[in-house]
Amino acid sequence: MAPFELAEPRSLAEAIALLDAEDARALSGGTALMLMMKAGVLRPARLVSLRKLGLDRIEANADLHIGAMTSLRALEKSEFVEKGWPVIARTLRTLSNVRVRTVATVGGALAHADPHMDLPPLLVALGARVAVEGRNSKRTMPVEELYAGYLENTLKRHELITRLDIPALGKRRAAYLKCTTRSADDWPAVGIAAVLDSEQVTLVVSAATDKPTRLRAAEKILGGSSFSDKILRQAGEAAAEEARIEGDLHGSAEYKKQLLRVYLGRAIHEARSAVH
């Protein structure tokens, strides 16, 4: 691994200033970044640690507010999450392993933009937003708009995710299912999130696509339906045709299309039986 400078700013403004250089990278949990540096994929001259910025709090009123440096394990174990957003806790329990979840952070996981991650599709389906700060700028945007493609996000060089906001689940029911080709905590071949709200259905697929992708044609078929086997099959076919499915080491494109057809129906059934 190439040598690098480690900066540990104590304010967000200082961190943003240090990042405004082409060879600088933010360091949150580092679970993916360090692997990429060891492999020689990334060779930053400066790493800017975010651990002293106080961005590791979880708060809840009607909505859930999560600091970007909150660990995935802390999110999984949060009483706020277990009570008001249990689908997030259920999803996190099979995301990699406890060691990784203890180190990895919410902001880092989102910014990494790996389509195999479990949280992004669920967050998109739940209507979550991220707060972003950069040089002389603050903005919020839907999680869906954070992704440009495989390992590509839409953040500017000096921008950081500071907070994740998730609207109240209310009477909505939600589920996330994934199919792995090896152990349950392995990278998925396909992941699908389903959120049901009276007559509206929101479906988001990942792992089989290069970024979390809404399945709008399938949503239209399912909206207001009784979710009969026939309707679910039609929605599965629509999803397989609509999404730009990509093959990888976890399965061919055709294999993943078939998984999507099957898992769409399973995700709907899981969401319908979900306990608030």
Descriptive overview:
The protein contains eleven helices and 14 strands. The protein has helices at residues 12-19, 33-38, 72-77, 79-84, 86-92, 98-103, 106-112, 119-126, 216-222, 229-242, 253-272, and strands at residues 5-7, 24-27, 46-49, 58-60, 64-67, 129-134, 137-142, 147-149, 152-153, 160-166, 173-180, 188-197, 200-206, 213-214. The strands form four sheets. Strands 4-5-10-6-7 form a five-stranded antiparallel beta sheet, covered by helices on one side. Strands 11-12-13-14 form a four-stranded antiparallel beta sheet, with helices on both faces. Helix 9 runs antiparallel to helix 10 and helix 10 (229-242) packs across helix 11. It is globular and about 60 Å long.
Query: What oligomerization state is this entry in?
Result: single chain
pLDDT under 50 segments (min length 5)?
A: none
Largest sheet: 5 strands, antiparallel
Intertermini distance: 46 Å
